Every structure is written in C-alpha cells, then in structure tokens.
What does this fold into?
Amino acid sequence: MNKFAIALAAFTVLAAAAGVAEARVVRDERDIPRQLLFGGTCRQCDLSGKKLVNARFTGADFGGATLIRADLRGASFVGSNFQGAHLADSDLSGAEMMGSNFSYADFTGAELDGVEGAGAVFQKANFTRASLQDAELPAVNFNGANLSNANFRDAELPHAVITNVQASGASFRDAELVGASLISSTFTGANFRDADLSGAVLVRSTFHNADFRDADLSRATLFGADLSRARNLTQHQVSEACSDSSTRLPAGLTPRLCKGRKIMIFNAPAPPKPPEAPRPPKSPRN
It folds into this structure.
C-alpha cells in the first residue's frame, strides 16, 4: 500500500469515528472528494493535479510532497509541515495556512490570492511569478525567499519578515507593510505605489528603479538603504523617514538624519518541527 493510500485509509477511519459521510475514492481517479481531512504522515506523496478543494490538513506531515498543479482552493493547513513541498502552478486561492511550515517549498506560478497565513513560515521558499493579491499574512517569515515578479497587490503584511530576499520585479502596490522588516534584500524594479511602509525597516536593501509614488514612508528606517535610483520618491517622503550617513538617495533629496535611533526588528520565528509519525496499530490478539 503506497503512502497516499495509507493517508486515505487513515481519513476513512477518522471519518467513520466522527460520523462523517463516507468518502468514495477510486484508486486511479484524478479527482479526490471534497472535505477530506488529512493527518499523520505522507512525506514525498505525489498528489500532482489532484482536486483537493476545501481539504483540511491538521497536524499533518507532507514534507517533500509533490502537489504540482493541484487544486487546493479553500484548503486549510493548520499546524502542518509542508517543508520542501512542490506546489508549482497550484491553486491555493482562499486557503488558510495558520502556523504551518512551508520552508523551502516551491510556489512558482502558484495562485495564492486571498490566502490567510498568520504566523506561517515561508523561509527560503520560491514564489517566483506567484500571485498573492489580497493575502492576509501578518508576521509571516519570508527570510531568504525568492519573491521575483510575485504579486502582493493589496496584501496585508504587517510586521512581516522579508529579509535576505530576492524580490526584483515584485509588486507591493497598495500593500500594507506596516512595521515590516525589508532588510538586506534586492527590490530592483519593485512596485511600492500607494503602499503603506510606515514604521517599516528598509535597512541595507537595494531599490534600483523601484517605484515609490504616493507610498507612506512615515517613521520608516532607511539606514544603509540604496534608494539612489528609486523612482517617484519625494522630499516629503524622505523627510518623514529616518536616514543615516550611509543612506543613498536620488539627486536633489536631503535625508533626515536620526542619530541614536533604535531599530525594532521582529525576529523570524523558527520553523515548527514536523509532527511525529503515527504509531502502527497493534496486531489483533487471537
């Protein structure tokens, strides 16, 4: 019996115990019934192209699983481990990812519009060309992630850890980045139009050709940031932010130096440990 069959068998047991309507599964079907509940361990499972709409993953370990082009709309991931999972071109629109670990996961070209992921860990994950419009991602950890050409328009990212990232061509237009840490990262050609960066920390990051038209930089910290080639940056914006002698601004703009200012940086939360594999059932006594 393969790992996926074991996971489905485990679901059948759980459903029967809870009085849930029977889920009928044909081994070679591409479509999997809705309202599935997954728990336990299914590492390296291949669920590519499967329909898992509204599926629930609670305390599950799907580390290294392959879900390329899977339909996970409205799925719920609670306290689960998807470290190193392959989710390229998958549809996770409206999914919930509360407190789950997606470190090193591949979301290339994935649809994540409207996802809710408070406290989720996306450390060193790949979001190249992924769409996260209207996503609610407070205090998430994107440390070391690849956000190239990702779309975060209208996303809520307060106090997010966006450090050591590659975010060239990413769009944060109309996004909420209040108190976010955008540290030691590359934002070449990024779009910050109308974004709320109040209280954000942009220390040691590069913003060549990034667009800051009408962005809110009040109380933002620009220590060591390279904004020398940023577009649509105004004196009013710079005067509301804090700079130091290493801040680089476009010609004609004068920094507001803030000596002795303490920088409040939210530490990236450590990825949660994968849940333990369930123990096999005891052999029946004769």
Notes: DSSP finds two helices and three strands in the chain. The two ends are 24 Å apart (CA to CA). Confidence is low (pLDDT under 50) at residues 1-34, 264-272, 277-281.
